[in-house]
Amino acid sequence: MKQLNHHIEFVFGGTFDPIHSGHLAIIHALTKQAPDYPIRLIPCSIPALKKQPATSFEQRLEMLQLATQNLPNIIIDERENNREGASYMVDTLKSLSQEFPGKKLILAMGADSVVELTQWFEWQKLTQLCHLLVLNRPGISASSVELSVSEAAFSLSTSFLSLTQNSSGYAYLLEMPEKTESSTQIRRSFRQYRDNNLELDSLLPQSVIKYINSHHLYQ
Hints:
- With 219 residues, this protein is of the alpha/beta class.
- It has a single domain (8-178), classed as 3-Layer(aba) Sandwich (Rossmann fold).
- The chain is built from 9 helices and 7 strands, in the order E-H-E-H-E-H-E-H-E-H-E-H-E-H-H-H.
- It has helices at residues 21-33, 57-68, 89-99, 111-114, 142-151, 161-165, 183-193, 197-201, 206-215, and strands at 8-14, 39-43, 74-76, 104-110, 131-135, 155-157, 170-174.
- The chain is globular and about 45 Å long.
């Protein structure tokens, strides 16, 4: 039985409204990069920079559980729903650091989020709390990622090992096959495709499609 490395873990947050194949591709990329690292999925309760989710936290949580139930190393963390007010990642990372002192946290995020990093609440504290693992996104160049990482005071490394050998403050760009799916696109097109599972299967896990249909979401 594979032993997990409990001294380092990936943190992957999002509204997951709904979780889709693009999210799952990131999870698979993280697993491939470091098979023995836990992946902590943190559904956002109240987004600070985005529109409010179209579904409840409980519904998004259930879809997340359905989509990942057969995946290894997954931890689904509900802590952002236990805090009042907007969900700030810096507060989440602080609470994780307090709960697991000495653990190295690697915040996984798309390049489209990295270019907005200096708009985050108390972004200046992030280098003391985590590393960044940045995944490429369509339309975001590597040079834009490098600039954004530098502006946020992270040290860009060409080696993933830098994230494992230092406590925090490093960033690594992980290239993966580009996925164009977005939750916004799926919500907008769901009514058009909801009776055509061949179209939906490329965007969403079958278990999530069934859940959305049975609860009449995004319609």
